[in-house]
Amino acid sequence: MRKTAINTLCTGLAIISLGLPLISSGFAQKVSAEQSAVTMSSGAYSTAIQAPVIKPTWSFPVIPTDSAPYSEQTVAVAVNNKVFAIDSNHRLVALEASSGRKLWQYGDQLTPVLIQSNGIIYGMTQSGAIYAVTTSGKKAWTTPLGYTKADHIHRIGSTVYITQSEHTAAVDAASGKLKWKISEEKDLYHGLDKLMETDGVLIRNYNVQGSLTFEQINAYDAKTGKKLWDNFRTSFPLAVKDGVVYSVTNTFMMEDDDPVNHKVTIAQYDLKTGKSKGDRQYRWTEPKNKDGDYQSGGVSGTAFLYGKDLYIFQGKILASYDFWNYKPDSKPAHKWSQESYGHLSSLSAIHEGRIFYEDYSSNRLTAMKLSTGQFIQFDGDNPTVQADVIGKGVYIGQSDGVFHGYDLMTLKPVFTVNTGSRSFGPTLKSGGMIFIQSGSRLLGVKLPASLK
């Protein structure tokens, strides 16, 4: 989440003078004052958050959440009532979740790129090696790769994949043995963050530059790294089933710009060869837009799959279809109006019967109840830097360093923490604790009973 939420505070200051004359020798003196050259009253307001202020149970120094050159970094992970983090000395440390007590430390000169999978912590060193450490602090293995700016680690089955822009490496998860390394053309490819493996085929997405830059997916043999096929103007797969890859096609500047008749095209490819197996067309019409307003925040035509339901933003309507029972020109199974909220950007996420958005006009996290179509917003008194939805809690770090916890179901603020930092990383949770990544500190906060 990164990358979402909350109202910008805009306050007009006024100078107040009491309406009493100054008295001198029994005579009233005339008082002159400079008049405002420009006065503006925006009518903006901020909502005061009424919630108990609680103090963190513990605090621990870590790498700053905004440290360069890692644009997408993972400073900490939490699992089984433990937190594993890269501390301020670039070491991996294990902390007891309830107390913050340090259990062990490992290595030095480590980077904030790490994951936890099956009882193993995988991370990267500044020299570009990947390491594996057990959750008890025992070193398993280290493998040099030369990826000094690695951006992501993925574990899929028995393989750990490491990416660095156009580079990809595959390492055996148990032994650390390098399986293969590949690299696409540097000046054309910029690697994105998604990766999947199915039936022996690894699929990765990139931005690829031509006369225009579009997303592309490449397929590789998972055993050898040999490229099997690629498809330009194709998004990361919605799904792969029975040997068929389903991906949304980017048709920008490929078709007539019809202002009334619209469609989303989902291409179907053979998983092993990349050959076309036809496509699907989801069509709709909209009234001709005469006033130039964006439709549904400019996200019209975007789609995502959640379970068996395909959601497509169709102008001022959100429509869903039964994805696995496709029929040409079929009608949507459900529709929801999006007309009241014209500045929404979908986060392509559904949780607890709610679909989530970023309202970029007010900088708020917004949700819509699928059962009723009702929109709900999480108010605040400053812009949001970081927002996370975990279980039945919504956790929001604001630009003034204040962190709020809300009840997802009731929308009520439950608690507030004053962190003292304007930067935040993703909120973590394990057991009855959350862990706030704020500036150069990791804060352990005991959750109120309603959010555990």
Automatic annotation (TrEMBL):
<feature type="signal peptide">
    <location>
        <begin position="1"/>
        <end position="28"/>
    </location>
</feature>
<dbReference type="InterPro" id="IPR015943">
    <property type="entry name" value="WD40/YVTN_repeat-like_dom_sf"/>
</dbReference>
<dbReference type="InterPro" id="IPR011047">
    <property type="entry name" value="Quinoprotein_ADH-like_sf"/>
</dbReference>
<feature type="domain" description="Pyrrolo-quinoline quinone repeat">
    <location>
        <begin position="128"/>
        <end position="376"/>
    </location>
</feature>
<protein>
    <submittedName>
        <fullName>PQQ-binding-like beta-propeller repeat protein</fullName>
    </submittedName>
</protein>
<dbReference type="InterPro" id="IPR002372">
    <property type="entry name" value="PQQ_rpt_dom"/>
</dbReference>
<dbReference type="InterPro" id="IPR018391">
    <property type="entry name" value="PQQ_b-propeller_rpt"/>
</dbReference>
<dbReference type="Pfam" id="PF13360">
    <property type="entry name" value="PQQ_2"/>
</dbReference>
<keyword id="KW-0732">Signal</keyword>
